[in-house]
Every structure is written in structure tokens, then in C-alpha cells.
Amino acid sequence: MRNGSSLDPAEDRGSAILSTIPLSAPIAVELPGERQRRVVIIATAGPVSVAVVHLDALGGGERLRVLWTPWIRDVQIRTTAAALPGGPLVIGADLNTWHGRDELAARFLEQRFRETPISVDRQGLGLRVLDYMFFRAGPGQRGRYRQVENRYGSDHRPLVGWIE
After folding, report:
1. Which end of the chain lies in a sparser environment, N or C, as judged by fewer CB atoms within 10 Å?
2. Which contiguous run of DSSP H or E holds residue 144?
3. What is the 3-state secondary structure (H, E, C) of 69-98?
4. Rounded CA gap, 125 and 150, in Å?
């Protein structure tokens, strides 16, 4: 997404995939939106594809922002799903689901990735869930992720995930 006002030099900021193994076949998918530019990043890391998704937190200024944001996130996640590769896949996602895990975008991905059971270890009450991981692994495999307690100055907690 772009940062700064018109007086500042334009530069991109946003999500990244960090990997200890070489990444190949990277693609960027620009999502429809109303306020800020959002781009999904997808790459291949060995035998598995990885994706990073960051959806809009608020709708445009002409809407009641909190009421319309689940709708724009649903549109964005369906655009994302259309670009995802087949085969093994891990998604790290800031879905910005203010309304919790029952919001459309979270439910959509949970249904799309239900073949791989996921175990989640969240810290605290977990009433406002914003960040998720989703896995598509082989038969008999499970995805697992946990929140890291240190927030490193963010309003989000980092997630660490693996396939068992």
C-alpha cells in the first residue's frame, strides 16, 4: 500500500514473505479496495506455496466504515482465493476481522481449507481475532500455529505455524 501525503515521496509498504529457503515464482495480486492499496503476495518455498494476505480494516469515507468493512473484506478474500495455487499451501493472514471469526472472510477461508485440521494456541481472551493461518497439506497432516506473546510494539501478535 502507499504511504505518506502528496508532499511525501511515494513508497510501498506492507506485507512480506520471509523464508530461510529460497522463494520462487513470486506473484503479487492487487485487491479491490476503497481506502488503501492492498496486495497479496504468493511464492513457492520448496514443495509448498506460501501467501501473505492483509485485508482492509476500514471501508471508504463515503460509507459507515465499521458496518461496511466485512463486505469489502469478503470481496477481497474472494479475489485472493481466485489467485491461490493448487497443492500444498500456507497462508498467513491479517483479515482485520473486527467482528471476530464469524465474519465472512474468516468463514470463507475456514471452509476452503477445512481438509487440513488446524490447532491454534492463542494468548489471552481472543475476543477480537485479526490474524490467522490456513493450511492445505497432504493426507494425514495437520496445520498448527500459535501466537507469540511479544507484540514487538504492534497491535497484532506474530504467528508461528508449521505442518505436522
Report:
1. C
2. strand 143-147
3. HHHHHHHHHHHHHHHCCCCCEEEEEECCCC
4. 16
The pLDDT tens digits for 96-119 are: 887 777 888 999 999 999 999 888
Cell of 53: 494476505
Amino acid in the structure at residue 149: E
Residues 6+ apart with CB under 8 A from 119: 142, 143, 144, 145
Taking the domain 23-163, which CATH number applies?
3.60.10.10
Where do the domains of the chain lie?
23-163
Can you tell me whether residue 29 is helix, strand or coil? Answer: strand
Residue partners of 62: CB distance under 8 A and separation at least 6:
none
In sequence order, what are the residues at sequence separation of 6 or more whose Cβ sits closer than 8 angstroms to the Cβ of residue 162?
143, 144, 145
**Model pTM score:** 0.84
> Are the CB atoms for 144 and 161 separated by under 8 Å?
yes
